[in-house]
Amino acid sequence: MVVETGRDPGRTLDDLVEVAGRIGASVESVIDGKANAVRLTLAVLLAQGHLLIEDVPGVGKTMLAKALARSIDCSVRRVQFTPDLLPSDVTGVSAYNQERREFEFKPGPVFANIVVGDEINRASPKTQSALLESMEEGQVTVDGTTYQLESPFMVIATQNPVEMEGTYPLPEAQRDRFTARISIGYPTAAAELEMMETHGSASPLEDVKPVAHASDIRALAAAVRRVTVSDLLKHYVISLVNATRAHEDLRLGASPRATLHLLRVSRAWAALDGRDYVIPDDVQALAVPVLAHRLLPTPEALVAGEFPEQVLAGIVSRLPLPARR
Prior knowledge:
By secondary structure, the protein is an alpha/beta fold. The protein has 14 helices and 13 strands.
């Protein structure tokens, strides 16, 4: 399979996957023992999506986001979300230029290839919503003027669990724009021992150098869009999403946007395996990280301890796999 890129029209899918492997290895040099989280992060990047990293403090959420950003030679901006942060602090503001006697636009940190939003749920819902247009449409509108964002564009946001002090729950519209949600989790004893050896004297981020360019990411994304998804598998994805909408333990199921996100990340997941076609295993592996954060359980389900992740796992296990007619 030959993939047309801007720099080298002769590069193959295998060549592009090799670039993704270099990025993954670079990130894993900083995040010990979390290969699956790193791979899912790469899949979201190649699917041109956005990632929400949710976990308790101190497990490496921001480190993962920074490691990915430093592994790619592109523009990166970091936003520390706090209760007093304003929407204009994210998108930018029009300021009056005394010399020119006119207003000029000063871009905010959202005008970057990778935007790292640290502790996004510590800002007010009004400020969180400043990212809605950019995440969905790749553009920002300020004072009636629309500005296009450069590709690739990815928001990597970290947040603490909602039961932590000083947090605001993300609005449903905001959660739905995140392609996937992952948790880092605590490291194994061996990984934590290795971390003590390597992180004790200096930050490993200092040694991370770019191993890919923004043009490589655009080429990878183009390759992902060419990955084949059969009609049978598309119907399987629709059946999976529809099952969340009709489930008795969920008061809000997955949206049509979630259907598209699941399909795109499944393509990227297959490409990372060097395949130009998607199989049911890809969809099943991604159902929970792509769909669970969008679902709202009923009060009765919460009392019974049925969380969206468990509901989804049950749906995946019961739904018949696509079969050729």
